[in-house]
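Example 9 (inverse folding). The structure is encoded as follows.
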């Protein structure tokens, strides 16, 4: 069962990276900052991928 959850969710760093990007998107959506979101989300995703790759 542990292997199933590892395949489904990845490790804690992956879950944390996805959660942080989703939190950023939720805050931008809640504050109606759509134009800012178009500029902030792609670099945030790239930063999360870079953090995961080290």
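The amino acid assigned to each position is listed next.
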């Amino acid at each position: 069962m542990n292997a199933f959850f590892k395949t489904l969710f990845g490790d804690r760093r992956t879950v944390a990276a996805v959660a942080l990007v989703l939190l950023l998107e939720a805050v931008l959506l809640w504050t109606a900052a759509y134009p800012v979101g178009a500029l902030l989300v792609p670099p945030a995703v790239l930063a999360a991928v870079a953090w995961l790759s080290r």
